[in-house]
Amino acid sequence: MLSFIQETPEVLDPASEEKTLSIYKLIVDGGLGGQIIIAILFVLLAVSLYIYFERFFAIKAAAKVDKNFMNQIKDYVSSGKIESADALCKSTNSPTARLIEKGISRIGKPLEDINTAIENAGKLEVYQLEKNVSVIATIAGAAPMIGFLGTVIGMIVAIHEIANSGGQIDIKMLSDGLYTAMTTTVAGLIVGIIAYISYNHIVVRTDKVMYQMEAKSVEFLDLLNEPV
């Protein structure tokens, strides 16, 4: 009876250890190759999140336009107060205001020239809105491939251990290779998914600002095309 009581903890302890899973332990046990790849993926995640939030707040600010802005522009232009309209545009920090300002500066020229000037200014504004967004797209595509690279490295390590085991496989060394393979794959997919979602969200918000700019530009051109 005493012997049974003494052996029972030895049976339970390994079982309890097997159920314990630590992400930190997985990364540490993955070897140097896995740790390097995890570190690279962590840096890519930080870069993508930084660009996402920086662009998110920039686009959010760009989308804010006073509802009375175009009504004031119409009143100024209709009454011939071009300088007042231009001053209003300069005092309003938004892509839409800068497009209208470009159009106001061309008043008196053919409507086609005004339209071209607004379109060129619009391209510059879109470029500013999309600044560094392509980096997030690149990370979304590259992160899973980097994770897969870790998978390949881990499998090579595992196969190398099997080949050099001499018929006696070292489970510890074999598990290190498998840890590298699995943890880097999961990390790569997580970073890729986050970057992919971030990229698409930024693209959608940018498109909304672009449609807003286009609508206000057409409204301004219609104003200039109205018969006096």
UniProtKB/TrEMBL annotation:
UniProt-listed Pfam families: MotA_ExbB
Bilayer topology term: Multi-pass membrane protein
Subcellular location per the Swiss-Prot or TrEMBL entry: Cell membrane; Membrane
Keywords (A to Z) from UniProt: Cell membrane, Membrane, Protein transport, Transmembrane, Transmembrane helix, Transport
Main location as per UniProt: membrane
InterPro entries: ExbB/TolQ_transport, MotA_ExbB_proton_chnl
TM helices/strands, residue ranges: 32-53, 133-159, 179-199
Domain MotA/TolQ/ExbB proton channel stretches: 92-214
Family: Belongs to the exbB/tolQ family.
Record's protein name: MotA/TolQ/ExbB proton channel family protein
